[in-house]
Amino acid sequence: MSLRTRFSLYCAAVLFTFSVLLTLLVAVSAYYDSKVSSQEAAFAKAETASFEIRKIFSDAISKVGEAKTRWELTHPSRASVEKDLVDLFQNDKKFLGAGAVFEPNLFDGRDSSFIGRKGSNANGRFVPYFHRSIKDQDKISLEESVYYDNTDESGNYYQIPKATLHDYVGEPYMYPLEGVNVFMISLIRPIIRNGRFIGIVGLDLKLSDLEAEIFSKRPFGGGFLSLISPGGKYAVHGSKGILQGKNVGPPEVRESIQKSLASGQPFFYPVDSGNSYIFPFSMGSYSKNWAIEVFVPDSFLWNDLGPIILRSLLITFALLPVCLYFIDRFFCKYVSEGLSSAASFADSLGAGNYTTQIPSRDIKDEIHHLFLSLENMKEKLLLAIDQQIRSEKILRESAEISSRNEIIRLQKEELEITLGELKTAQETLLRNERLAAIGRISGAVSHQINNPLGAIGASRENISYYVKRITSLLPFLLTYLNETDEDERNAFNETFQRILGNNKELIGKKFRETRHSIEAFLKRQNVENAGDKAAVVAELGFPDCPDFLLKLCICNEWNRISEFLMAVRGLEISEEVIHRSTDRMYKIVSALETYSGITREDSERSVKISDTMEAVLGVYEGAGGNRVIVERNYISEARMKCVPEDLVRLWTQIVDNAYQAMSGEGKLSIRIYDSESKVVCEVEDSGPGIPKDIREKLGEVLSSGKMEGEGAGIGLAVAASISKKYEGSWNWESEPGCTIFRFSFPRLE
C-alpha cells in the first residue's frame, strides 16, 4: 500500500472524527457566541439608555448650574428668581418642575415682608416650586415647597446638599402635587454666597415620563430595560411598574448588585427564563453610580442556535469528500514534491555539492500579517503614551495646587501655635506692673491674628472649591480650544492672561458703576443677557469690555467659559487675600518680637529714644488695628544711657493710657525734639481729657481716673519713678479732645 493511499485513509478517519467533534464544538461555540452577542447587545442597549439619561441629567445640571452661578454672583429679586425657575423647565417637556429653598432671611433678609405671598411659607421664607399641572401639561403651577425641614428621606433633597455643600441627585421618592403623589427624581445644587450656604435650586424629572420616553420599548423580544438608583432600588421598570421603588434582585444576589454599583463594574445574574445584566454608569461629578438593568430572555439565545447546528452538520458532511480530494492534491503538490526536493537536496549534499540551494518558496503567510499587526500596535502605543503624558501633566498641576493648600494649612497651624505662645507670654507678663496693659495687648493681638487666620481659612476653602470647578471644566475647555476658531481662541487666551495679571477687586460703588457702564456698552452691541454678562465681566476685574472679551460674550459657550474664568479669578483673589493676611501677621509678630527683645535687656547702654518708642507703638498699632491714627514727628535723634526695659515700661504706661482714653479710636501724636541740653518726648491723644477730681493727685500711687476694676492707679506712678531715676522731669496738660504728657531727659552728648 502506497504512502499516498495510507495517508488518504488516515486523513479520512481523522476528518470524520474531527467532523463530529467540530460539529459539537460549533454548537458549543455558537451557544457561547450567542451568549456573548446577547451580552454585547445588552451592553449596547444599556449604553444607549445611559447616554440618553446622562444627557437629560447633564442638561438639568447645566441649567441649574447657570441659575446657581447667577444667584451666587448677584442679588436678584424674588420675582427674578421665580422667572428663572420657570425658564429652567418651561420649554423642555422632559422636566416636571423646578424649585428653590432658601435659608430663613438669607435670600434678601426680608422674609417678614412676604408672609402670605404665594411661593413663601407662613414665615415668609422663600420656598417657591413651579411645576407642570397634573391635569394640563401646558399650564404652570406655583406651590410652596414641602418636606425640606424633614430629617427622613423625604427631606434629603435639601438636608444633604446643605450638610455636604455638594451636588445631589436624589433617590426616587414620592412628592405630592395637586393632591397626587408623583414618583420623581430631583437634581439639586447648593447655592453658596461668600462661602456661606444660603439655599438650593433644583430640577425634577417625573419618572413616568422618563419611562415612556426611554424604557417603554421591549428589546430582544420579551426583554426589558430598567433604571436602578444608587440605593439599589428600581427608579423605572420597563416591564413591571409595580416594582418602582422596590429593591433590585433577589436577596441572595442583592449584595453583589450593591458591590457592582459601588465599584462601577458590570454584573449579571440568572433569573427565570433569562439573564439580567447590571451596567453601572456615573452622572457628572455626582459620586454615586446609577445603573441600567437589561433583561435578555433565553428565547433570544435559542431562536438561532438550532438552525446554526443543523447548517454546521450539513456543511461539514457535504464538504468532507471535497476536503479529502483537495488534501490529496495538497499532499501531492506540497508534501510529496517537497519531500522529493528534500531528497534531491540530501543526495546533492551526499555527493559533495555544497553550493546547492533549497528551492525558494515565496509565501506571504501569517508571519507577514503579524508584522503588520505589530506595526499597527506600535502606532497605537505611541498615541496612548502621548495621551498619558498629557494626563500626567494635568495631574501634576493638580498636585501642585493641593501642595499649596497643604502649605497654607501648615502655616495656619504654625500661626495658631504662635498665638498660643503669645497667650502664654501674656500670662508671664501679668506678673509685673504692666499686667493690665499687656493683657489688653495680648487680647487685641489674638483678635488681629484670628482675623487674617479666618481669611486664610476661608481662602483655602475657596481655592479647594475653585480647583474642583476648574478640574471639572478642563475636559470641556480642551475640547473647546481645539474646536473653536483662532480668533475666539486668541480672545480666550488674552482674557485668561489679563485675569492672571490682575488680583485687585472692584467693590461697592466702583463695582456698580463699572457694571452699569459695561451693561450699557453690551446693550449697544445688541448682546443678549447684557446685565448678567456685565456683572461677570466686572467680577473678572475688567474696567470695561474690550473687543477680545466682547467676542467671548457673544460666543455660544459663554456660560461655561465664564464659569472657568470666574474660578481662575477666584484663585487669584484668594491667593491675594492669603498674601495680605500673612503680611499682616508677619508685621504683628515682628513688632512683638522687637518689643519682647527690648524688654529682656537688663543692663544699661546707649539707646536711641525713638527706637524704644517705636517698639511700643509697633505692638499697639498691631493690636489696635486701624482705628487709631498714629502721627510721628521725630525731630531729634538723641540718645540716652539707660536700661532699655525702663523706657519701654514708661512708654507702655503712657501709650496704654492714651489708647484706653480714646477707647481704641482716635488720633495719637508723638513728638521727640531737642530743647537746650535736654530731649523732650510728648505723647498727645484725642481722648476726653483727665477728670478734674484727680488732677491734683495725678502721678500718685493708687490714684486712677478709670472706672473701678479697670485700673490700679500705678501706671503714672511707675512712669514718674522711671523719669526720676534718670534725672528727668515730666508734666502734663489736658482739656477735652487734647491731653499731652511731656517727659524731659538729659541728652547723651
UniProtKB/TrEMBL annotation:
Residues 576-749 form the Histidine kinase domain. It comes from the Bacteria. Keywords: Kinase, Membrane, Phosphoprotein, Transferase, Transmembrane, Transmembrane helix. Pfam families: HATPase_c (PF02518), MCP-like_PDC_1 (PF22673). One of its GO terms (molecular function) is protein histidine kinase activity. Its EC number is 2.7.13.3. Residues 333-386 form the HAMP domain. GO terms for biological process: signal transduction. It is found in: Membrane. It catalyses: ATP + protein L-histidine = ADP + protein N-phospho-L-histidine. This is histidine kinase. It comes from Leptospira sarikeiensis.
